[in-house]
Amino acid sequence: MPTMVDVARSAGVSVATVSHVLNDTRPVLPGTRQAVLDAVEELGYTPNTLARSLVTSRTRSIGLAVSAISNPYFTEILQGVEASALEHGYSLLIADPHDDPGHERKVVQLLHERRVDGMIVAPSAEPGDLVAYLGRHRVPAVFLDRVVEVPEGDGAPRFDQVCAEGAEPTALLVGHLAGLGHRRIGLVAGRPGLSTTRERITGYRHGLAAAGLPFDDRLLVHGDSEADGGERATAALLSRAVPPTALVTANNAMTIGALRALRDRGLSVPGDLALCCFDDFAWADLFAPRLTAVAQPSRDLGAQAVRLLLERLAAPDRPARTVRLPCAFVHRTSCGCPEQTEQAHVTAPERTLP
Fold first, then answer.
1. How confident is the model over 72-98, as pLDDT tens digits?
2. In 164-251, which ranges are continuous DSSP H helix?
3. Distance between CA atoms of 303 and 308, rounded to whole angstroms?
4. Spatial contact of 174 and 185, defined as CB atoms under 8 Å apart
5. Cβ atoms of 293 and 276 closer than 8 Å
6. Rounded Cα gap, residues 203 and 187, in angstroms
7. CA nearest to 171, candidates 343, 327, 60
8. Which residues neighbour 9 within 8 Å (Cβ) at sequence distance 6 or greater?
9. Residue 292: which of 165, 203, 204, 173 has the closest Cα?
10. What is the pLDDT of residues 145-194, one digit of tens each?
11. Is 28 exposed, middle or buried (0-12, 13-18, 19+ CB in 10 A)?
């Protein structure tokens, strides 16, 4: 097996120069750098990452803890994280916390024990233990998709966060349905305690108010961010003495559940009930009717989380930031609009909060 000494001899440089090229620890002239890379390729040299981590105290690995990895939304986020991590020479260790605070704490500790350089975490609805562990051990971390409000003062740790806009896009869906004449618009909301759930409920209420419609708490039900929960919640709405004529579902899994509930009752979309959903997914335009949706920039969220983490590793003491990325409104036909060329427009500009 070729060694770094062999690479140095082949490239006509010192071992230290080879190390600087491979570890990116010091600028090297482009021609010299290319000679080293050519020698690495020709000899088939593979760096000893374990030995390198002992010298640098870095493993060039990132821990990723997200629940429901089978969900297409999180799958696309994972793809964004992976592509960006590989681009910067990092590998991934992935764990599923199952949206359970106790399990979340365990998997984060396991990732930490694997000596990852930092973590990207989609926190649960009760992230207190998670925040305490990361803060106590000073683990560089980015919260993804769901933001956590950490109280100011008392030396409380601050974390970088990246998520999509939630309130404004939901308000847009409600306003669109109201503009089509609907006066009883229901919401199947996500798991209580999640920031995404709170923000989409806020957007729902703002959308109703902007349309001059009263808020009726009987039209807001929680589907716990899962397909089965979405099915139960939609069934509860449909059983009301005066059911809604239109529905907003707050994530893709609950949209599937809502469609099941409608199918089981022989109801059609949009004939019997207009439907708009938060989260677009690959087959949303294959349904009949095609689903009008808010599309989150899932891959960009993953890539942005990696960028924030690498910036944190490079400057551990810089102020924490929260980056919010815009969504896109994808206009199809489940809302009751006639068939048309698919349209999409961004609902808000990207913004960064200190």
1. 888 899 999 999 999 998 999 999 999
2. 167-179, 195-210, 227-238
3. 9
4. yes
5. yes
6. 11
7. 327
8. none
9. 173
10. 999 987 665 555 689 999 999 999 999 999 999 999 999 999 999 999 99
11. middle
Residue type at position 131: V
Tell me phi and psi for residue 33, to 5 degrees. Answer: -60, -45
Q: Which token pair is 189?
A: 């909301």
Question: What is the rounded CA–CA span in Å between residue 183 and residue 208?
Answer: 9
Instruction: List 220's β-bridge partners, or say none.
Output: 187
Q: Whose CA is closest to 81, among 196, 73, 327, 253?
A: 73
Q: Put residue 138 in one of left, alpha, beta given phi > 0 → left and psi -120 to 50 → alpha.
A: left
Say what the pLDDT of residue 54 is: 44
Pairing of strands 185-189, 220-222: parallel
**What is the average pLDDT value for the chain, to the nearest integer?**
89
Tokens 């102020």: give the residue. 319
- Amino acid letter, residue 53: S
Residue 354's pLDDT band, with cuts at 50, 70 and 90, is: low
For the chain, the C-alpha Rg in angstroms (whole number) is: 24
How wide is the angle at C-alpha 296 spanned by C-alphas 252 and 210, nearest 5°? 90
Residues linked to residue 352 through DSSP beta bridges, in sequence order: 323
> Which of 63, 143, 80 is CA-nearest to residue 297?
80
Tell me if residue 219 falls in helix, strand or coil. helix
